Amino acid sequence: MDKAILRRWLQAGFIDEGTLFETSAGTPQGGIISPVIANMALDGLEAAVYASVGRSKLARSNAQLNVVRYADDFIVTGVSKEVLECEVLPAVRRFMAERGLELSEEKTRITNIAEGFDFLGQNVRKYDGKLLIKPAKKGARWVRNRYFRVDGHRSWDFATKGPADGSTSGFRLFRAMTIPITRHVKVRGLANPFDPVWTTYFARRRTAKRSVKLFGATTWC
């Protein structure tokens, strides 16, 4: 990004309920500039992770490394705790230190997929070898307390059981278990929807997605 544009963006301030507030330092909570800056600062993190186990494709394949990142939140999966702890974690710390950043000790941990972990409000865990992704308990409690307890009324009961008079008016929540599992194929890391080179790739993904929706076919990657 052009640094002049970035500087003006940082100093543009923000409007809340019709009032303009200056930004002399930092960025507004929830502002779109935060993930943009995070993506700029962390560009190259994936390459640093892969390079931590060696430059060859074989080394990366043996380590079974995968990186998933959303702005400044990311997870790294690997073949073993030793690889993640002794190779990947030090490399990530060095990468961030070069940019004046550091990992959050509170949020950084190494865990087995069988124990699971929370990421972006979702819990990722394997049950008897089967991977399931579902809303994290912390997020579910927040939604319940935030939206379904108003003025002392137990509106959660209304949302899940319906009106006390037995009528069908209003809305009702449904259990997640009633929704069929849909497999999602991750978009290739280098794919760019604005680059004509990838037009065919994204067209084939859209076609495959429609096929799955209509006929239950298997998607491609």
Low-confidence stretches: 214-221
Terminal residue distance:
30 Å
In percent terms, what proportion of residues is strand? 5-15%
Number of alpha- plus pi-helical segments? 8
Strand order of the largest sheet: 5-6-7
Commentary on this structure:
- The chain has helices spanning 3-10, 33-41, 45-51, 57-63, 81-97, 137-147, 155-161, 199-215; strands at 14-16, 19-21, 66-70, 73-77, 117-119, 122-127, 130-135.
- With 221 residues, the chain is of the alpha+beta class.
- The strands form three sheets. It has a three-stranded antiparallel β-sheet with strand order 5-6-7.
- Strand 5 and strand 6 (122-127) form a beta hairpin.
Characterize this entry briefly.
By secondary structure, the chain is α+β, with helices and mostly antiparallel strands.
